[in-house]
Design brief:
Layout (H helix, E strand, L loop, with lengths): L5 E5 L10 H9 L2 E4 L12 E2 L6 H11 L5 E5 L9 H7 L5 E4 L4 H9 L7 E4 L14 H7 L2 E5 L6 H10 L5 E7 L7 E6 H6 L7 E7 L14
Parallel strand pairs: 1-4, 1-5, 2-3, 2-4, 6-7
Antiparallel strand pairs: 7-10, 8-9, 8-10
The protein binds S-adenosylmethionine.
Length: 228
């Protein structure tokens, strides 16, 4: 049976001004666009809402059933290479069956807003970790102890405040904590604080990237105990 290639298209952090021309061109070529709720309003054409995160096998099944007829594009936020549906689809399709169109990541935009390089930052995601029933921010304290800069993707369970609580629980206090909320949207907000300040902050359950930085002059090794 013949099939058309699938396109995983990164469309940036949310505002249309961060969609690259290459992503726009690929979107225009596709017969059918699939995405989660948040991105369905980004383009001036219908986008079918699919539960890419909650039910990946059903999403893949839908793609397999329709790709003979339609050139399908799956829109993902930010860059597909960072915690996206790409991780799922590459378990089901061969290398020649799909292509990836890069996008501007929320992490990239966070570091740009802070005017900081991110070549030696450790990036990790707590997004979706509540599904494991875990009470500990798996690996976070270890990563913060080891790396001068850590960028964390959050969610409604692992909010910036819960992240601060986890760090304090592991004895990590002397860090700068920068909460980058709703990047690229009109309600974007950047809050520079420390671990105790983040714990005291109004909890944000929306989109955010939390950057945790060692302060200048802070010793290399920390008293934190690794959870790994
Ligand atoms: C499943 S991950 C996808 C990351 C995406 N591939 C990227 O490169 O940005 C979703 C998480 O990315 C972060 N995120 C995505 N868009 C954001 C935005 N506009 N502002 C702040 N954080 C964002 C949040 O931590 C969110 O929970």
């Amino acid at each position: 049976m013949s099939w058309k290639k699938l396109y995983i298209i990164g469309v940036g952090p949310g505002d249309e001004s961060y969609i690259t021309p290459a992503a726009r061109a690929k979107v225009a070529e596709c017969d059918l666009l699939l995405s989660s709720q948040r991105l369905t309003r980004l383009f001036d054409r219908p986008i079918r809402k699919l539960d890419l995160k909650g039910d990946p096998p059903a999403a893949v099944q839908f793609i397999l059933e329709n790709r003979a007829r339609l050139k399908i594009g799956v829109l993902v936020s930010g860059d597909p290479g960072l915690y996206s549906f790409l991780g799922v689809i590459s378990n089901y399709l061969g290398q020649d069956e799909f292509e990836v169109v890069p996008g501007i990541s929320s992490v990239q935009l966070a570091f740009a807003r802070l005017k900081l390089g991110w070549e030696d930052a450790c990036i990790l995601s707590l997004h979706g970790r509540d599904a494991d029933g875990g009470r500990d921010a798996d690996g976070l304290a270890g990563a913060v102890a080891q790396h001068p800069t850590v960028a964390v993707l959050t969610d409604g369970r692992w909010t910036p405040r819960e992240i601060a609580r986890d760090l304090l629980g592991h004895g990590i206090e002397d860090r700068e904590v920068i909460i980058c909320e709703n990047l690229s949207y009109p309600e974007e907000r950047i809050t520079v604080s420390d671990v105790r300040g983040a714990l005291a902050s109004a909890d944000s359950r929306g989109l955010s990237v939390v950057i945790i930085r060692k302060r200048k002059g802070c010793p290399e090794s920390s008293q934190a105990s690794s959870t790994e």
